[in-house]
Amino acid sequence: MGLFGKIFGGGQPPPRVPPASERPPRRLRDDAAYGQPLGSDQTDAGPFPKRLRLRAIYSDYDLMGSWKVVTLNSPADWAAAREEVLQAYYQQFGLIRLPGGTSAIRWNEGTWRGVRETLDLVFDPAFAPSVDASGSPTA
Amino acid sequence: MRAARLARRIALERRWIREYYKQAAPSSFSLPLQPTRRQFRLALKKPTGRLTFTKVDDRVRDGAVLKRHLERMAPHHVYFTTSTWLDPQRLGPRDFVKAKKPGYTLAHNVFLDQGLYFDIDVPGDLSEAARQLLLLRDFLREGWSFKDFRAVYSGSKGFHLYVDDFRIRKFVDVEGDPRRREEQHPAVKVQFTDAALRAGIMIDAAVTLDPRRILRVPGTVHGKTLNLCEVVEVPRVESFVPRRIPSDGWRKLLG
User: Fold this and answer.
1) Residue-range definition of the domain harbouring residue A114
2) Which one of A15, B147, B153, B186 has the lowest number of neighbouring Cβ atoms within 10 Å?
3) Are strands A63-64 and B227-228 parallel, antiparallel or unpaired?
4) What is the DSSP letter of B56?
5) Structural domains of chain B, with CATH
6) Which long-range contacts (CB under 8 A, 24 or more apart) does A87-96 make?
7) Is residue A66 situated within a structural domain?
8) Are B124 and A29 a contacting pair at CB < 8 A?
9) Closest approach of chain A CAs to the CA of B177, in angstroms?
10) Coil, strand, or helix at residue B17?
11) B157–A93: do the CB atoms touch at under 8 Å?
12) Scanning every residue of chain B, which has its alpha carbon at the shortest distance from the alpha carbon of A119?
């Protein structure tokens, strides 16, 4: 409430803050939402085509890339899909925004080679696109 | 079954870490300059394997204070803020959206200063990381006449280089407004990171440029490798061999 409101009254009463016992418990990050380690079940086993929701994680700092959906038509597509997820991570974290609107490079080629080696790729187990009769994913 | 094994493994690691901190001398922790102006953060590993971060709600004035917290919490990772703050214990996130009261964000984020730090990681090749550190040291010495360096083994894939004689006022007039002061640091330091990256030196520029960055405290355990993060004399960095904390893991795991 502003000064005018304080002097002359009116306005909305301040929202009631519920006592701690009534507040919902603080929601911690759901471990399942973090993603699960990829195995050959996801990358090599059919049925194909299939879609996976993936992200790269730098586990040392718990630095998580955004989710990315990739399509695999066969196990041979895995290398390209992996590269796509790693490139998305690079796009997300490879540039540092500086005050004043400029940006700076975070890694050179050599550093990025090292970083990408240490990234873990995880998949979203809850992402299950339905597959139609022809075997094409529909979700 | 797998989850239970993971939980047992993590409990065991925490026991080794706690035992290490119990016997560690307070002087074995190399605290950064002005430690009471910094926030110290602990990463605790949950039985699921996930990390949760908590801050040390105490002014860490010396190794004895830190040791007390480490013994109690047995964290997998221990960090300090690379910047100094007027009230480091109440330091809030940069964009503190929960702040309801006017001035709250500013009052809890009074930035004082930040040192100059570099992070060098070379997975699987520590001797190459050491070579990169020496390249960087020479590069900074020749380009900007810095003289006072400290090397720290990070406990995993590389080293941190502290430039102890960096003073921002040699490069720019320091602003009075703490928010502007905080912004001055990346603006000044980008010349070092850009030049080093262009010279092919393998640094992670984000560690140098981010005023909110944290670094591992020398003398503490890296919870993933169980190696000690420690100060290394710069001339000896190439012959450095990491030290692992004692563990009786293999005996326990085999029963």
Assistant:
1) 30-123
2) A15
3) unpaired
4) -
5) 2-254 (3.90.920.10)
6) A88/A56, A89/A55, A89/A56, A89/A65, A89/A116, A89/A119, A90/A116, A92/A65, A92/A66, A93/A63, A93/A65, A93/B206, A96/B186, A96/B205, A96/B206, A96/B209, A96/B210
7) yes
8) no
9) 14
10) helix
11) no
12) B123
Do B186 and A96 make contact, defined as CB atoms within 8 angstroms? yes
ipTM over 0.90: no
Count of domains forming chain A: 1
Contacts of B7 in chain A (CB under 8 A): none
CB distance A106–B198 less than 8 Å? no
Sign of the torsion angle spanned by Cα atoms B90, B95, B98, B102: positive
Q: Tens-of-pLDDT digits for all 255 residues of chain B? A: 688 999 999 999 999 999 999 999 999 999 999 999 999 999 999 998 888 999 999 899 999 999 999 999 999 999 999 999 999 988 876 665 555 555 556 667 899 999 999 999 998 899 999 999 999 999 999 999 999 999 999 999 999 999 999 999 999 999 999 989 999 999 999 999 999 999 999 999 999 999 999 999 999 999 999 999 999 999 999 999 999 998 765 445 444
Contact B206 A96 (CB under 8 A): yes
CA B192 to chain centre: 19
